[in-house]
Structures are given as structure tokens and as C-alpha cells.
Amino acid sequence: MDSSPTSRVTLLSRMKRLLPSRRFRFFFPGARQSAIAQSTIPPPPRYTTASTARPEVTQHNAQSYHELAQRLQRLSPPESNWYGPGSVQIVDAAPFASGGFSDVWKGTFQNRTVAVKSLRCYSSPEFDPAEVGIRFLKELWASDKLSNPNFVRFLGVYSTPTHPFALIYEMMDNADLGQYIAQHPTTSRLKLLTDISRALEYMHGQDITHGNVKSKNVLVDGDNVARLGGLGSAFALSLPASWSDVESQRLFCGFAPELIDPDAFGLVHARATKATDMFAFGMLAWEVFAGKHPFAGNVEAAGIFSLFRNNRPPRPVHPEMTDRVWNMIESCWNQDPFKRMTAADVVDVLEAELF
Question: Which residues form the Protein kinase domain (predicted)?
Fold first, then answer.
């Protein structure tokens, strides 16, 4: 699985063969609006993360998305476990976390508390069945393949008419990385960053790129081990149309310059690579030591243009911020992708400082 145009076309073609053409229409990037207009599926009702509960959906809508998910099971990893209605009990009426494409619900599964990440099928007309199906398959394959102590543990797929595309993950005892550091100001930053760098080293060794390394995608377990999650962008990267909200600001401040303006680097497409992951890690490391995200307080465009002009935030003051660690951070966010440290190099530096 990769994000090349060829693999995307192949995946869409295989999806077409699995689905009845009279009920689903598929499209390629650039044909979004016309494809949506041609779709025979009724427009999904609106759903926002501010809502107190998921709204009712039409029986046809729910059955259509659920049927798509069941058919996509044939394209899922052979060893992945799928669970249907009644397997997971959603505890609350609203999600406890939300991202750009999904909501995370608290649930119980096999006598344990779990996090159920449900792709938001009904939130916007911009999400049609093909796009949701591709994003679901990519995160499923990445989650299934990345079995490592520094990743949030993947438990299986949960698919019902209400949650057609949902992934079950182990529930972490603590908050995300930013919240955890705020609640535990004396915790070792080097230890947390070492955990994250080990996850990236393992991931890159599998020839998988993350594409969205940021503090909200790092969770801390009961043993105070940082675990990397948020694998929805692991195989593909598409820039949001708007830079206006706070979440986009946090996301874009970790974007490498070649993702902001591919043309300036001689690239045809903005595509996540190991080098862009390391740039994002450098920004994340700075945030861990500074206690705030880079360019905090700037309007979003100013922060983005600062990154593109090779401006970087100053060295933060922290007892664990040594010259070697600072040099590592500067290497990670080097303007030239080929001069950035690899994840393996970063692990070597942090383990030497930590031990």
C-alpha cells in the first residue's frame, strides 16, 4: 500500500468490482463535485462535532455505507478481525475526541474500555463512499501492520449501520501528549520523545510514512509510555481547503516546506515522506520542550509563510535541552529534506542523552 497515483487507481478499480454500480459512483481526484452530483446515494445529513449526539440517518443511507464496509472486508488484511452490531457498546452519547475526518467514541469491548475511531461518513457532502472507503482501508492496513509497543494497539474493525467504518483501539489511561505534559510538568521530555522516535523508526522501517505527526496524535498509557496513533494519513496527504481554524494551525505548523509549496522544491504533488515526518517530529520536539506549539499566537498564514521562508522558533529553555538535542531538532527541520536526520539517527541521539 502506498500513495502513488497508480496504487490509488488500482484500489479504486478493485473497489468498483466489489460494489454494485447502480448504487455507488466512484471518482478520481479533481472530479469530486461532478461525482457527488451524479451519486445515487441520498445526500447525508449534517453532523458536527459540536452536536450532543449523532443525528438520525435515513435507513437507505445507513444501509448503503454499511454494505460498502462489508464489501471492503475482502480488501482488508487477512488476519484482521471484524465485529458487528452488539460487539461494542458505545458508552457516551457524544464522542470524546474529534479530528478532521473522524470522531472517537468511548466504548466497552470484551470486558475492557476501548476507543472506537469512527470515520465521519455523514458530516459533509465532500465525503463520498469512495473517499471514505479508501481512507478506511489505508488506516486499517497501517494499524494492522504496525504492531509495536510504541503504537496505540489496534484490536479490530467495528462495522454497524451507525458506525460503518470504525476501528477499535486500546484506550490510553492518560491524555494526549500536550495535555499530559501540562498535567505532569516534571516528566522527562527526553523519555517521551524517545518513545515517539522509536515508533517512527519502526514505521519507516516498514516503508510507511505517518503524514500527521503532532501532539494530539500521541497518547500516553498507564506506564507513561508515549504511543503514536492517528494513522488516518499514513498513506496519503491532502491539504485542507481552509487554514482558518485552530486545528489546522496546529497541523500546518508541523508541515514541511515541500508540502506547503511542492513546486518550489521541484515536486509535482504534496506527498508525505519519511523526511516530512522528521520535519514534523522536529516541530513536535520543540513543542514538547517549550510547552506550546510553534508560532503560537500568530495567525495561521503568518506561521505557514514563516516556515516556508526558513524561519524557525528560538531554542526553548529547559533542563533537558542540551546542545546535542537542539542540533537534532535543527537537523529535523532543515529546509533541505535530504539533510534531515532519519528516525534511526534521532533514536541514537535521544537514547544517548537519556541513558
Answer: 90-355
CA distance 25 to 38: 7
The reply to whether the predicted model has a pTM over 0.90 is no
Backbone angles phi, psi at 346, to 5 degrees: -65, -40
**Region(s) of the chain under CATH 1.10.510.10:** 177-354
Strands 166-170 and 154-158: antiparallel
| Alpha carbons within 13 A on the beta-carbon side of 148 | 22
Given a cut of 80, whether residue 194 has pLDDT beyond it is: yes
- Amino acid sitting at position 242: S
Distances (CA, A) of 256 to 260, 334, 340: 7, 9, 11
DSSP 261-278: -GGGGT-SS----HHHHH
Residues 187, 280: Cα–Cα separation, whole Å = 22
At 99, list the grid cell.
479530528
- Residue listed under C-alpha cell 472506537: 116
Task: Please name the fold of domain 5-170.
Answer: Phosphorylase Kinase; domain 1 (3.30.200)
